[in-house]
Specification:
single chain; 563 residues; alpha+beta; Serine Threonine Protein Phosphatase 5, Tetratricopeptide repeat; 3-stranded antiparallel β-sheet; 17 strands; 13% strand; binds S-adenosylmethionine; SET_SmydA-8
Length: 563
């Protein structure tokens, strides 16, 4: 028994051990909270903002300023006094025994890891786990030490990857020996153990995401019980990490004896991309119902309108399979038309894959993705002083995107991944432009893309709940709040001019008032949706749920004061 809600099942096939529910589990029910055996911030976050030991986001205090002065903040982090210069949330973390033991090795390991192109954060986490193993060897043996049944396979398949870490470790040790480091400290290190831990981190660790509504990866942690769960692209649990604590909640109802499965990949990706990640990083291919169906159980993230059926109803979608000879994932395209009338389906499989029309569309998709990745679509550099000079460049990019929409995206199912990328990028781009140019039209366009984005994400998660939905509804509410404020401003200006008898504007004030009311209702609904998902995936007491609850109240309150 892992907890009172689930138990481990020993299994020898390629899936290895797995976990099942011992009783029915309701949506939103907490399966287990667990503190990590060891965690570390990712390389870019090894700074003042996150504690190097527990990964807690640093507290910021407001500095009292004379009223006219801009507000200043003071980061409460403290820097290590033992020599590594890393940042900690408190004296307790900075003086922690694990850190005292690792401290003098940190900068040397960072240096050799960068030189050998190894991931810095993974190497430092492995160092920390090795040290923790010496301090708490019983706990290690009882938990993380048991997560080794997939290691041999990983090491066998990823020989060149392991070799890189092997060389890195050797160089790190050589340097310590040349510097005559304390032999009793050097005795902590063992190359085989280091490589086993590195492999285990790749197989078993969990990344923590930022606590805001943008979910950026910030840390990596090593947890025992959650690491016993297998993967599915139709998961029934959702995990969150706060500092060094992980919580898992059911995102669907789980029946007694049903396997509890978690997702190791971004579920907004189409099958071919999810499978490539799973195969390259975890050495297996998922056989869940979403992966086994060419339409992804009607999610259509890779589906193209059939250019032979030409009726706007049938779609060509790829079946993904693993070619044992080339050891690569391949696609077999087929039309959904089952009536034997589709010219595309009449062709043999290899001819279908090479159909010139299909090849053309796939090339267009690649070109679109390259363009999206290469262009600075968020125009982060645009500011008020340079806005006018930037405008022709921005207009050109938007024109190019419209052309992609006409030539490529219009040929794809509305749930195709390209549309998702398009809405993600354009929602933020138009939001930024509306801010820089103070332009209403850009704001309206941004809202349209946020709406489409939310609809799209809903269709991917279907009847399930997820953190992505919390964020989508939050952002949809937030952008509409901006719109609401501009409508209220417009109404106030109108009323003021009317009072002064100067109003020459042709404005339907009743319509504007009713738009404001409806918009407020919509915003309130967005925050309510976001909150409902948040309570299920993060729980009542999570900061996001608390913030969302306040937003619901605020948008309700406004409804009584906007008139
Ligand atoms: C975090 S562990 C999960 C527990 C693991 N089954 C065990 O016995 O320790 C991850 C590893 O389990 C295996 N695994 C997880 N999900 C799988 C799946 N859907 N199909 C095949 N193998 C899977 C893979 O070898 C993967 O690298």
């Amino acid at each position: 028994m892992i907890t009172d809600k689930c138990k481990l099942v020993n299994n020898n096939d390629e899936r290895g051990n797995f976990v099942v529910a011992t009783n029915e589990i309701k949506v939103g029910e907490l399966l287990f909270p667990e503190e990590s055996f060891a965690s570390i911030p990712l390389e870019f976050h090894m700074n003042k903002d996150y504690c190097f030991l527990c990964c807690k986001q640093s507290e910021v205090e407001q500095v009292q300023q004379p009223s006219q002065q801009p507000q200043q903040t003071n980061n409460k982090s403290i820097q290590c006094k033992f020599g590594c210069n890393m940042w900690f949330c408190s004296e307790i973390c900075s003086n922690d025994m694990t850190h005292q033991l690792e401290c003098s090795f940190i900068n040397k390991l960072i240096e050799s890891s960068i030189k050998n192109e190894c991931d810095v954060s993974t190497c430092l986490l492995a160092l920390r786990i090795m040290i923790r193993n010496k301090i708490e060897s019983d706990k290690y043996q009882e938990t993380v030490g048991k997560l080794s049944n997939q290691l041999e396979k990983f090491i066998e398949i990823n020989k060149s990857f392991i070799e890189k870490y092997d060389i890195n470790f050797q160089q790190f040790i050589n340097q310590l020996q040349q510097e005559n480091s304390d032999p009793s400290l050097l005795a902590i290190f063992n190359k085989d153990e280091f490589l086993q831990i590195i492999s285990s981190i790749y197989i078993n660790s969990f990344s923590g995401l930022s606590n805001d509504f943008n979910r950026k990866p910030i840390s990596n942690g090593y947890f025992y019980k959650p690491a016993l769960l297998n993967h599915s692209c139709e998961p029934n649990i959702f995990f969150t990490i706060k500092d060094k604590n992980l919580e898992m909640r059911a995102c669907k109802k789980i029946e007694k004896d049903e396997e509890i499965v978690d997702s190791y990949v971004d579920l907004l990706l189409p099958t071919i991309e999810r499978q490539k990640i799973l195969y390259n990083s975890k050495n297996f291919l998922c056989k869940c119902s979403r992966c086994s169906d060419s339409t992804e159980d009607e999610r259509y993230l890779s589906s193209i309108y059939c250019f032979h059926c030409n009726d706007g109803v049938e779609f060509i979608s790829p079946e993904i399979y693993f070619n044992k000879d080339t050891k690569k994932l391949q696609e077999n395209w087929k039309c959904s038309n089952t009536s034997n009338t589709c010219e595309f389906n009449k062709k043999k499989q290899n001819k279908r894959n090479k159909d010139p029309e299909l090849v053309l569309i796939l090339a267009g998709i690649n070109e679109f993705k390259e363009f999206i990745n290469s262009e600075q679509l968020l125009f982060n550099d645009v500011n008020l002083s340079t806005a006018d000079q930037e405008m022709p460049i921005i207009e050109n990019i938007l024109k190019r995107l419209l052309k992609f929409e006409r030539d490529v995206l219009s040929r794809l199912n509305l749930n195709h991944q390209c549309w998702l990328i398009y809405h993600i990028k354009l929602s933020k781009t138009f939001e930024k432009l509306s801010l820089v140019y103070n332009n209403f039209d850009y704001l309206v366009q941004s809202i349209q893309h946020y709406k489409e984005l939310t609809r799209h994400v809903e269709s991917i998660f279907k009847s399930s709940t997820s953190g992505e939905l919390v964020d989508c509804y939050y952002h949809l509410g937030r952008i509409n709040e901006k719109y609401l404020l501009s409508l209220i401003k417009q109404r106030n200006q109108f009323n003021q001019l009317k009072l002064q008898n100067q109003n020459k504007q042709d404005l339907d004030i009743d319509k504007l008032n009713s738009d404001i009311k409806n918009l407020l209702k919509f915003i309130n609904q967005c925050y309510t949706n976001s909150y409902n998902h948040s309570v299920l995936v993060y729980g009542n007491n999570h900061l996001k749920s608390i913030q969302l609850n306040e937003m619901i109240l605020k948008s309700n309150l406004k409804s009584t004061t906007t008139n």
